Amino acid sequence: YPTLYQCDLHKGLRIEISEQPHTMRQVTNIIIALQKFKQVRSTEFTDHELFNIIIENIVEGAVNLCFSALPTSNPPFISKQDRVIQCTVCDGLKKSLVQSQGTPNLLAVTLRGGNSNRSVGINLSTYTTPGCKATNGQPICLKIAQSNLYLACTKESGTSSQPHLILEDVKDEETLKTIEENDGMERFLFFRKVTGGSINTFESVKYPHWFISTSKNESMPVDMCVEEDTSRQKVFTLQDQKVI
């Protein structure tokens, strides 16, 4: 039987040491976790902060490390993971994302009183890929909960206009399970980067340096903007997170 040792280093922090053998993947995750937690000064976290640290650093780091050694001669591809995070989303001004009636857009709206139920649920799915550098962020797709509507960054056909964010109805969701380079499905992918434990940015994979953003004005469409655009909000927080 495995022997288990426990010791309390600080209030709120416990280390458990087991003699039970671990797989290489488990050892890798532990190393990544220790390296990341070294950078955190405090050992006291809220549940929300701890959740984000785990998702951002341990899960994302393990993905990048495990796939970095794969052969690169094959066409680049990414595969959708089974884990889905369901949440609501607020921008840096505390505006919530709500679905616009009659248009394929989301709006950023300040919800007060009993209107919080207007905030749309978002399903966030992550992908694994051999070609994604850790500095780019975690590849994800974003879907309106209980629907087939996905956020997509696209340009109008046959124009040189700037990219826009729309809600697109995906009839066959199986087409999003594996996405290859230049297969036309990259419009559904975004690089999610988390800083400070809870601040999220979402950069288009198809159009680098274009980010999901909101206007500083009320009830305006959620759209894309370049990184240098200071007139728009490009940071978001995820609320009411749960893994489904």
TrEMBL record:
What's the chief localization of this chain?
Answer: cytoplasm
* Pfam family of the protein (one): IL1
Q: Does the keyword Signal apply?
A: no
Which SMART domains does the annotation name?
A: IL1
In terms of superkingdom, the source organism counts as Eukaryota
Q: Can you say where in the cell this protein is located?
A: Cytoplasm, Cytosol; Lysosome; Secreted, Extracellular exosome
For this record, an example GO cellular component is:
cytosol
Name any one GO molecular function: cytokine activity
Keyword Secreted present in the record's keywords: the answer is yes
Q: Which GO terms describe its biological process?
A: cellular response to lipopolysaccharide; cytokine-mediated signaling pathway; fever generation; immune response; macrophage chemotaxis; neutrophil activation; positive regulation of cell division; positive regulation of gene expression
Q: InterPro entries of this UniProt entry?
A: IL-1_CS, IL-1_fam, IL1/FGF
Q: Which keywords fit this entry according to its UniProt record?
A: Cytokine, Cytoplasm, Inflammatory response, Lysosome, Mitogen, Pyrogen, Secreted
Q: Which family does it belong to?
A: Belongs to the IL-1 family.
Name-wise, this protein is: Interleukin-1
Species, as recorded: Pygocentrus nattereri (Red-bellied piranha)
